[in-house]
Design brief:
Elements (H helix, E strand, L loop, with lengths): L4 E6 L8 E5 L5 E4 L1 E2 L3 H5 L11 E2 L2 H7 L9 E3 L1 H10 L3 E6 L5 H4 L2 H9 L9 H11 L3 E8 L5 H15 L3 E6 L10 E5 L3 E7 L5 E7 L2 H17 L1 E2 H11 L1
Parallel strand pairs: 7-8, 8-9
Antiparallel strand pairs: 1-2, 2-3, 4-5, 6-12, 7-10, 9-13, 10-11, 11-12
C-alpha cells in the first residue's frame, strides 16, 4: 500500500528540492535531496546497507523543518479559550472550511428557516457579528475560504446564502470547488496572526470534538502555505453564488 505522505517543508527558493515529507501513518520522515553516488563518498558511510540510498541536504533544512519532538503532544483548549482568540488576535484571522456539512449548522434555527424559505435570516447583533465588526473597524482582517462540492450539499448552500451576512460584518468570504482544491489539507482550521493554528477536529456526524492549537513554526508555515494557495484560487462568495445559480 502506498504511503500517505504530507509535504513538510523546503528551504529551496526555486525548484522545491531538497525537501522533507512526513508519513502520516508512521511518522517517518522522507528526505528528498541530491543522491550521493560517488563510490569514494559512499565508502565513507558507516552502517550503509546495499538497499539503502544517501542524499545530501543543507543543514538548514533539518534545523528549520525537522521535527522538534519524538512525538507531538496535542495542545487542546476549551471553547472559551478558543473564542478569546477572536478578540485578542492582532492582525489577521483566517479559516479554511472543508467539510460537506456541520452539525452546528443543522441545529441552527436559521438553517431550518433556509430549508423552509430558501433564504437565511440573520440577527446582526449576534455576538459573532458584533465582535467581527469591532475587529474589522480596528483595522484587522478576517476571512475564510470554503470548499464546496459540485453540486453543493444542502448545508453548503445554506452557508453560501449566509455568506452575505458574514460579508456585511466585514469578513472576506471566498469559495473554491473541491476539484480545484487538490493539494490543500482536508482539515478545518483557523490561523491567527500567522503564528497560531487552531485545528478543529470533528467526528463522523460533523460534531466538533475538540480544538488543537499549533505554534511550532514549521507546522504553522505549512498551514500558511495552504492559506495562500486557497486564497489564490478561490473566488468571492457572490461570484461563486452566480456560478452555482447558472448551473441549476
Amino acid at each position: 500500500m502506498a504511503r500517505q505522505l504530507r509535504f513538510t517543508g523546503t528551504d529551496s527558493k526555486i525548484d522545491g528540492c531538497p525537501a522533507l515529507h512526513t508519513d502520516e501513518e508512521t511518522g517517518e520522515i522522507i528526505v528528498q535531496g541530491t543522491p550521493v553516488t560517488d563510490p569514494e563518498d559512499l565508502a565513507q558511510l558507516q552502517h550503509f546497507g546495499p538497499d539503502e540510498a544517501a542524499v545530501v541536504v543543507p543543514r538548514e533544512l533539518l534545523v528549520n523543518w525537522g521535527p522538534k519532538e519524538m512525538e507531538r503532544v496535542p495542545e487542546l483548549v476549551d471553547r472559551d479559550t478558543f473564542r478569546r482568540l477572536f478578540e485578542t488576535f492582532e492582525h489577521t484571522a483566517w479559516r479554511l472550511e472543508t467539510r460537506r456539512g456541520y452539525a452546528s449548522d443543522r441545529q441552527d434555527p436559521d438553517y431550518r428557516a433556509f430549508l423552509a424559505t430558501g433564504s437565511s435570516p440573520c440577527d446582526p447583533d449576534e455576538p459573532w457579528f458584533v465582535n467581527i465588526r469591532t475587529q474589522v473597524s480596528a483595522g484587522k482582517t478576517v476571512g475564510r475560504v470554503r470548499i464546496a462540492d459540485n453540486p453543493p450539499t444542502t448545508e453548503q448552500l445554506f452557508l453560501l446564502d449566509y455568506a452575505r451576512h458574514n460579508a456585511n460584518s466585514g469578513e472576506d468570504v471566498r469559495y473554491l470547488w473541491r476539484e480545484d482544491a487538490a493539494g490543500l489539507p482536508a482539515e478545518d482550521f483557523w490561523i491567527f496572526d500567522s503564528r497560531i493554528v487552531a485545528l478543529l477536529h470533528f467526528d463522523g456526524e460533523d460534531n466538533m470534538l475538540d480544538i488543537e492549537l499549533l505554534t511550532e513554526p514549521a507546522e504553522v508555515v505549512r498551514y500558511c502555505v495552504a492559506r495562500d494557495a486557497a486564497m489564490h484560487h478561490a473566488v468571492p462568495y457572490d461570484q461563486f453564488a452566480a456560478q452555482v445559480a447558472a448551473a441549476e
